[in-house]
User: Fold this.
Amino acid sequence: MIAAQAALETRLLLRHGEQLLLTVVIPTLLLVLFSAVDIVDLAGEGGGGGERVDFLAPGVLALAVLSTAFTGQAISTGFERRYGVLKRLAASPLPRWGLMTAKTCAVLVTEVLQVALLTSVALALGWSPHGGPLAVALLLVAGTAAFSGLGLLMAGTLRAEATLAAANLAFVLLLVGGGVVVPLEKFPEPVRAVLELLPISALSEGLREVLRDGAGMPWANLAVLGVWAVAGLAAAARFFRWE
Assistant:
């Protein structure tokens, strides 16, 4: 039952034009545009195209996780809750934890496709990744858990319209202030200290340390993501309302 529901959730996600725009088109366009054109001053991060993509690719991978696990999942789940879909599914033989597991599996499948696409585009643009795949995988899983918890918490406590507005606003704000395309070093020190504690910053900077700098496991960034994951999932389990 979980596998069947996960397959259904994945098909619905891949057929949804607005979701594809958010999860695939926007991250890809950002990667290509900011790598090809010196829109953002990356002084200290490298000025050439290859060096720009080395900085941008990890951040865009983090943005892909944000768009799928948080923004897309929050909006779709919020409207499913509004229209009574979750209420009907909760009354089916599929247990509630099974439904959440199926949604998580759909998110992971979508992220695998996103990572494959964005990696291919980045390599074509001259990206030279370093580091170990295990560290990258752990960061992506921890980031997915953190953003999923926050997305489900938002979808399960706010009205669908409020979720739509808040999720899209958060996406834009975190895109600008989460170290995705703008280096955190560009912000004043007090602001930077706060931004570094955000899950998107921890994920993008952690991926950058591994994939660009060839570092080992970025434990500090992984710890930040772990705290957000535990807090978000626990709050979602406690306050999520099915109708």
Notes: The CA atoms of residues 35 and 52 lie 6 Å apart. The mean pLDDT is 87.
